[in-house]
Amino acid sequence: MTPEEYRKELLETVHAVAAADGDFIPSAFITVATRTLADAGELADFERCHYRGTGARRRALWMDGYEFDDTDGSARLLVADWRGEEAAETMTQTDAAAVLGRVRAFVEDAQTGNLHPQLEDSTEAYALAKELYDHGWPRASSPTSTGPTCASSRGTRLRSSMTTTEAGFSRGTFVHS
After folding, report:
1. Domain boundary assignment for the chain
2. Which of 55, 157, 170, 171 keeps 20 to 30 A from 146, CA to CA?
3. How far is CA 154 from each of CA 3, 67, 89, 103, 175, rounded to the nearest angstrom?
4. DSSP count for the chain of H helices, then E strands
């Protein structure tokens, strides 16, 4: 299958899932992306958590879902950058860093305890922010975390391999797949 054929099939699948579920297209994209990641063995107990907001120092905060792994103390965080254009775009390292920076800002604000008090306590974002604050996910003792995964509608899935430190996430590298 060529990249163009894959992209066409992906867009058709996203639109079909949106129609079948009566959902918004960006949300259907997350459904399709997480199914793909689960089929590849990257996710097992994914929890949806859509959030877009502004945090400390007026930083943009984004989150679309997460999964915690008690065996190694890691957290898998997902954010989707849905564009849905017919023509494929290149997602540059700069684009990916900006999107993943919004996830990093969410985690940093949550871990410092600045985020959850600002959120409605019945939301998934509150539950995630509170968990990150109360239990220190990702665990500082964990040697690595699979870090944020950026699912991109541009035809490329990027995975960021992040390491954890006492202070949280350090810089990651991106792998195209």
Report:
1. 45-176
2. 55
3. 11, 24, 5, 19, 15
4. 4, 8
